[in-house]
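Hey L., structure's done. Input below.
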Amino acid sequence: IEKKQGGTMKKILAIIPMLCFGIWDVDTHNVNNWSLPITNYGSFDMGMWLPESILFAGAGLLFGAISPQRDTCVTIGYPYWEYSPGLKRQPHNSQIARIFMYPDDWPPPIDTFPMAPQIPLTYQQSWSCYNDFDSTLHILGADKPIGIEVYQTTFADTTSIIKDVIYLKYQIRNCTTYTINNAIVTVLWNQNTLVWNGLILHKWFYP
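Output:
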């Protein structure tokens, strides 16, 4: 489904599993030299470096930890989704569990999302949240949620010194009753994208 909001084309994936939370939402940062679709379920999809029309095939957030039972638990947002939109206790299919994008749909309601930013810092800014509590989304045999919420803020600007960059900021909350030990956080990317592999190896990209 596509709908126009201001000058931005917003796409919403309409196939919603019955047991999932919120809206599976996709929106695109496109005000500078990048066109980068971001989601509210842990991935950022196929984007493009516009000056040379170079495709970026996709990536997503990975969080891993050792559980109190000494199990190795991992939640990934790419190449498939083990996160679901919204906060842990939000009702299923909540219309408010979406991507908020400045300037068209901003700010996120502070009474529902007290952790969300209210004052934008860049020309185009988005915020969304997601969690890993839905065990039906995890790989069969590894269906043990870690118990986290992720608050994602994405920044894009037209200022000349940062027009070649999009920043993604992740704030991760431990929603369990115990300390999460031996945790690791990184970004998984599509390693078949050979051009970007070269940039990653030369530390132009910092996961």
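The helical segments are 194-201. Residues 194-201 form the longest helix (8 residues).

-- N.
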